[in-house]
Design goal:
12 strands; binds N,N,N-trimethyl-histidine
Amino acid sequence: MLQGLQDARKELPSKYFYDDAGSRLFEQICALDEYYPTRTELSIMRERMAEMVALLGPNCLLIEYGSGSSTKIRMLLDALQDPAGYVPIDIAKEQLLRSVAALTPAYPALEVLPVCADYTSDFALPSPTKLVSRRIAYFPGSTIGNFDREPAKRFLQQIARVCTGGGLLIGVDLKKDCNILHRAYNDSQGVTARFNLHLLERINRELDANFQLDQFGHYAFYNPGQSRIEMHLVSLTDQVVCIGKVEIAFKLGESIWTESSYKYTVEEFARLARAAGFTVERVWTDAQQLFSVQYLSVA
Ligand code: AVJ
C-alpha cells in the first residue's frame, strides 16, 4: 500500500477492495441495473449450460479463481455429471467460509476444498479423494479484465500449467458503446463510488491511516485508447494523509488509480488466450454481444 501511494503516479492493487465489507459492496454492484456483466453472464450460462457441461465432461475438478459468494458455480454443479470436487479460492476469508457453509448442505456429495489465498501468488492446490478426469479452472465475472496485458498473459499461463489436459471456463467482458460502460461504473445509486472509497476506509482501519473519505471523489471513465475502464480516487483538495508514521501529500485533483477493467473483442481475447497456450474451443455471447463466456482447452 505504502509503495503504491509513494509512487509519482499513485496506484493501489484492486485486490485490496475485497475485505468482508468490500466483498459485500461488490455483491451489491452485481445486482445493479446499470452493471450488466453479472446478469448477462448468468443468462449466457443458463442458456448454454448443456453445451458447457458436455465440453467439461464427467468427474472434473472445478477450481474457481475468486469464488466470492459462490453463486455462479451452482449452475455448473447442478448440471455437471459427478464433479470430482470444488476448490473455491478467494482472498476474503469470511466470505469464503460463509459461502462454503451455504454450499455444503446443498451439495452433500460434493467434496469442497476451500483455499484462502491471493490467487496471483503461489498457493498449494488441495487434492480431492475422488478420481479426477481433468482440472477445469472457472474464472467468471471478467476479473481477467483487472490485469494489464502482460500480467494477464502470465496469469493465464499459470492457469494453463495447473489445468494441463483440461481447460478454463472464463467470463470475458466485450467492447461496446462507451456510454454503457460508463454507466456500469458510475451507477446512479453511488454503490460503485462507495466500493471505491471503501478502500480508504480499509486502509484507515488496518494501517492506522487518517484518510477523510469526503475529501476524495470516485472517478471512473472508459479509456478507448487502452480499451479499459479506469477507476480512480481523486483528491478534492491539497491535503496530507498519515499512514502510520508516513505522510502522503496529495495535490488538488491528484488521483490514486485503484482499478483497471480491460474490455476485449472476441478476436483480441483469442490472441491473448493462444499466447498463453490455450485453444479457444467455444465462445458464447448474449444477443447484444455485451459479454462472453468462453471455454479454452489446454493440451
Ligand atoms: C470484479 C473485476 C470484474 O471490473 O467490472 C465492478 C469489479 N469494479 N465495478 C469489474 C468492479 C467496479 C469488476 N470485476
